[in-house]
Structure formats: structure tokens, C-alpha cells
Amino acid sequence: MMNEILNLLNLYVSDNQRNVQQIGQVADAIDDPKLKSIISEMQPKELQVIGLFEINTEVSLKELPKLLGVSQASTSRITAKLEENDLISRHKTELNNKEWLLDLTKTGQEILVIKQEIDQKRQARLNELTKNYSQADLEKIVGFLRELVKVDGE
Asked: pTM here?
């Protein structure tokens, strides 16, 4: 049973194809050629960076590897591509000239709206999948996933 759980979780987590497909479907519905081109070439981690701005107006470049669960080198590549596509900009903090903060550009804000549409579709699918579970069952699932994240992080 544990092997099956692990295998299914691995399939779900590693299924970048599903994420890329959802991004592509959203891109197909966009009329603006520039936005369409940008989003159709985005990788899930790049979209995840954009999603960090849902609750923050600025994101610390120093904290990004921890937030994304990737290396500093990966973070550098991701942010460089996002800057190149004019989705984010960076500036030094007022208190510490060594620390960089990221901001969303106007184009980045448009991509954030698109990301929120993707998230709404995922939320609707999750609601459909869990509609027959009790609140207690869902709390157990959440508890299990939280413990799994702790185990995986050790």
C-alpha cells in the first residue's frame, strides 16, 4: 500500500506535462500575441514565481530558492528569463544595498491574472474530486500531506 501511495504521489508531482498542457490551453485563449508567446513558453516554476505576487507586492530574491524548493542556480535562471520577458523587475532594498527585491511589471500582472484562471480551474477540479469526502476525511488527508512534506524535506 505504501509503495502505491508513493508511486501515485510521484506521478502527480512529476507530471510537468499536465502543467504545461494547462498553460498551453490558457495561452490558446489569449488574443494578445505577445502575451500568448510569453505564456506558451513558460515553465511551471516560472509561473510559480509569478504566483508569489498574489499575496506579496515584492518578493525577496534571497528567499526565492526556499520558496520554490530549488537551487540558487535554478532561481537565477528562472528570474533571468522572467526579466528577459519583462515580467519582473528587480531593485535593491532601501535598508540593505546587497539584497534584491523583485516586482511584477505590467505584463507580469497580466500573466498573474492568467495564472489565477489556471488556479481556479484546478480548484474546481479539486472540489469535484473531494465532494464525497467528509470534513474529517479531508483534514486527515491534509494532515498526511503536511507530514509527507516534512518527511520529504528531511
From this structure: 0.74
